[in-house]
Structures are given as C-alpha cells and as structure tokens.
Amino acid sequence: MSARFEEIDWRTTPMGEISLRRRRDPVSGDDIYEVKLDDEYLMSSLFTEGEVELTRLGLAELPDTPLDVAVGGLGLGYTARTALDDPRVRSLIVVDALAEVIDWHRRGLVPLGEGLASDPRCQLVRGDFFAMAAGSAAAGGPVPAGDTADGSGAAPSGLDPETPGRRFHAILLDVDHSPRHVLHPGHAALYRPAGLTALAELLHPGGVFALWSNDPPDDEFGAVLAEVFEETAAHVVDFANPLQGGTATNTVYVARRGES
C-alpha cells in the first residue's frame, strides 16, 4: 500500500512552481495523481472524463482511415492515451510547454507515462503549442535532450518539428481553463479569428479541431469558431464529483474545417 501522501516531484519552471503529487483516496483506497502550478490545481486523475471525451468527440466523425493527430497539452496523458487506443490513429504528436511534465512520463512517474513514451506512434515534443500553431519562431527555452526538436531553442514551424507545414486530421487542445481563462496572456490570441484561422491551416480539409474547457458553453466563443470553421458544436460532459458531491461539467468544442 502506498503512503497516504507523497510529493513525487517539484520543480521551478518559467510558468511557476510545478509539483506532482500522489495521495491515497480514503474511500476507494486508489492512488490519485495531482498536478499543481504554484497554488493552483491543474489536473487530477480523479477527474478524467473531460480529457477522454475531448479525444472521443474530436475523432468521432472522422473517416475510418489512418489518422494523424496532434495534442496540445500532455498533462497526465489521458487525452493522448485515448487517441492511441483508437485503432485508426497511426501517428500522434503531443506538445507540452514544460519539459518537466514530459520527463514525468518518460521516467514512469505517472500511471500512463511508460505506455505513451514507449509507443512508436507517439512523439512527445517540448514546445509552445500556441506559438507553433501560429507559425511563430519565438517559442521559448532550450529543448532538453531527447525531445523531438533540434535543440536550438527556436519553435518549429507548425506542430511537427521534423516536418514543417505538416497537416493533421485532428488537433486536440487541453491547456487553458477556458478560452476566457488562460494560463498565460500569450495564449489568448489563439481563441480569436486570426489565431483559429492559422490553426485551421494545420488541418487537412475536413479535419477537426477540438477544445476542452472547464467553463459552460460560451456563445461568444462559439460565434468566433463559426467564423472560421464550417461546422461547430459545444458538448457538455457530465461526471460525478465526489469531492463536492453531485455532478460537475466540462465543455468540449468540436469544429470541422471545410472540405476545400
């Protein structure tokens, strides 16, 4: 049996102090993994329905052909794991700004880590998803050894550092709390028409952009999505919240690029 509480790792990063913790649930006896950035909880393995549904809803309407998928935000790996469990997915690129989070997976410090890091279809890329999606060459920080990048510290052009300009059948994003509540001011531009237009260029015709949000459906953001994408929808994901009792919700936005 594991200890009741353990701080597995703690690091100082450009975004703040990040920590990985494990605690034992007193009711179920299960180990719960949690990530905090400074004093704010970023994610917990107790609540994974939103991350799983982000992938399921994002890939649901795509054809039964080999798919190339990109994920923004590695976290505890549930979005990426669900993608790799889909037999259509032939390649997966996961971009995360924090080398520390990628390191947790490669060292097997989180439950899904070894499976993701060892899957030949999966690349874990250290980079600024938002700068890469915008085609910027200004993503910060040197790239640690072993990451899929040239080590120069410059952002690759597009989401695949080995193939600039590559397109994907689906791009799944789970980084910010919502389009209105971003972790960094520089992320806000992606949720505007110009940012979404640049992201849409990374999709094949008919490709899908899906976004996780902790907030209820936002009509204003939905209207911005509809300016850029041919089809859009906001799905409410319900799940049990044993900490507060009752049911909690997330939102998954799904937007499809036109066929031309």
Provide a short characterization of the protein structure:
This protein has 7 helices and 11 strands. By secondary structure, it is α/β, with parallel strands linked by helices.
Give an overview in words.
- The chain has 260 residues and is an alpha/beta fold.
- The protein has a single domain (47-256), classed as Rossmann fold (3-Layer(aba) Sandwich), CATH 3.40.50.150.
- It is built from 7 helices and 11 strands.
- It is globular, with a radius of gyration of 18 Å.
Topology readout:
Layout: E1 5-13, E2 16-24, E3 31-37, E4 40-44, H1 49-59, E5 67-72, H2 78-84, E6 89-96, H3 99-106, H4 113-118, E7 122-126, H5 129-133, E8 168-173, H6 193-200, E9 203-213, H7 219-228, E10 231-240, E11 247-256
Helix pairs in contact: 1-2, 6-7
Q: Could you give a short account of the major beta sheet? A: 7 strands, mixed
The low-confidence runs, each spanning 5 or more residues with pLDDT under 50, are 137-155
Total domain units: 1
Oligomerization state:
single chain
Radius of gyration, whole Å: 18 Å
Helix content: 10-25%
What's the name of the CATH homologous superfamily?
A: Vaccinia Virus protein VP39
- Strand order in the largest sheet: 7-6-5-8-9-11-10
- Assigned CATH architecture: 3-Layer(aba) Sandwich
Q: Structural class given helices, strands, pairing?
A: alpha/beta
Q: If you average the pLDDT, what whole number results? A: 89
Shape: globular
SS summary, helix count = 7
N→C terminal distance? 56 Å
Q: Beta fraction of the residues?
A: 25-35%
One letter per element, helices H and strands E, the order comes to EEEEHEHEHHEHEHEHEE
Number of strands: 11
CATH class value: Alpha Beta
